[in-house]
Amino acid sequence: MTEFWGMDTAQVRDHAERLCTASGEVEELAARLGAAVHGVRWTGADAEAFRGRWSALASRQLVSMVAELRARGEDGLGQADQQDVASAADGSPTGTSGGTIPPVEASPSSRGPLRADRPGIPAEFEDPAEGALSDLAGWVSDGIGWGVDTGIDLLEGGLGLLGANTHGIAQLQRDADHLGGVLEDWATGERVPTIAELGAAGLLTTGSAGVGAYEAVTGEDTALFDDRPGGIVESVRTESIPTPSPQTLQDLIAQNDALRLDTPGGPLENGRIGIQEVHRADGGEPAYIVQIPPTEGADLTDVPGAYGGQGNSRDWSSNLRLIAGQHPAAMDDVRAAMASAEVPPGAQVLIVGHSQGGIVANRLSADPTFNSSSGQSGTYHVTHTVAVGSPVQTSVPAQGSTQSVSVHHAGGIGPEGISGDLIPGLDLGGLQVDGGTLGAPNRHEVSLPGYPVPSIDLVEVLASNHDSVGPDGDADAGYSGSVGRATASDPTLSALQDDLTGVYLGDGTVVARSHVVTVGRGAP
Q1: Could you say which of 17, 243, 326, 445 is the most buried, measured as most Cβ atoms within 10 Å of its Cβ?
Q2: Could you tell me which of 64, 203, 207, 209 has the C-alpha nearest to residue 142?
């Protein structure tokens, strides 16, 4: 009698996630070293030779290491997912940590020419060809990046000698470096960006160029597109009296809305993040619900208040930075809030967000230095993200076990009027620049009927379909009401509630401590 030993998907996932985490750490280290190398004010032949050696040797090797670690990690996660699906089909145990939400069907995502297998080409020919293509594209990309950096350095240095304000030029360099990184990933075959990501990165770079020119000419230090970091904790309000946990998905959305600051549309000094420590009946380790409200404060037309001028990090320019794939102050705020609430590394976390809050939730879950089961300081095991009214299809979770659920109101014209939420569509459905669509088995989109409005006023239609609750906090309207009515009938939402019940929601769970952290980025 022979015995077959199958894949232990839990162990494979654990190892793969460690590889992804290591990839992010090396990438962050390389970015810091690169910024130091190119940021030092050192000119002359020796300086150029040093920078050249960095680009040709150290930088290239680190980029290759990041790509290899990430590729192996994602390949391991993909194989574990495939094994779980195959095992479930024949009735075998799956061992998946993703819960009961059915995986999304295979997506036609483009992974980049160096990450895709070519069945018709033998590996002994394919690998050297890909390596040569990567090296060529990398050298071209490095050359372009060096030229841009050198040009900006010279501009900044010259303006500085003339006594001009160069803060905006430094901001331009950071945005241009990020755009260059996106283009380099595409050119070298590391990954294919989405159109929304590339477009947002381009808009930011163009905007920062205008800001830099304006500040240099006028001498004024404007807050427009200010990319200063966040995470400045103003206060922490803690309730230690045990209270009932949320019971349903609808409760989660209503609680998110309750954290919003009441403002007439003017700039806000800071914002609030909600964190609940949930204890379960079985006495296991506590889990944590993190609530991130949407864009707040200054109105869309308030320039620069809504675009870097206020202390609340969740302004309109942060929307652009998030979709562009940057790590703006709004993400710093969540990290700082969780640290202030003493959420331990490796804890199970559910992140709930509305509009921009949902983008922040998904960007954090896509960051392997945040979403990881490694237990390292500053990392958490994000089991689920729930977003409503959010354009989130520009990223996928760093862990294959993280379930990302995004809900939007579908658009349409009927006898009762016009309905639909336009905001979630700003990600263009994850469309990539080469025609693919960014997706993953654990990225779930839920489309629900919207609220018809008997008017062609798009602002009125948006107001009725984008809010998380109705007027005067009516939890049976807005996304709260839609999700409440659809949870029992929609397969993804019903499975999501089953996943969360007993850990974050429902009978047998208690909120032992509740924190409201007031946090922001300070004045410009």
Answers
A1: 17
A2: 64
Helix runs in 263-302, H state only: none
Q: How confident is the model at residue 110 (pLDDT cuts 50, 70, 90)?
A: low
d(CA 21, CA 15): 10
The DSSP code for 487 is T
Q: In the structure encoding, which two tokens stand for residue 259, read together?
A: 């954290």
Three-state secondary-structure class, residue 455? coil
- Enter the tokens of residue 66: 């990041």
Q: How many other C-beta atoms can be found within 10 angstroms of the C-beta atom of residue 302?
A: 17
Rounded distance between C-alpha atoms, residue 201 and residue 325, angstroms: 8
End-to-end CA distance of the chain: 73
Rg (CA), the chain: 24
Residues composing the chain: 524
Q: What is the pLDDT of residues 169-194, one digit of tens each?
A: 788 889 988 998 898 888 877 789 99
Q: What are the backbone angles phi and psi of residue 266, rounded to the nearest 5°?
A: -90, 170
**262 — phi, psi (to 5°)?**
-75, 115
Distance CA(307)–CA(251), nearest Å, equals 32
**151 pLDDT exceeds 50?**
no
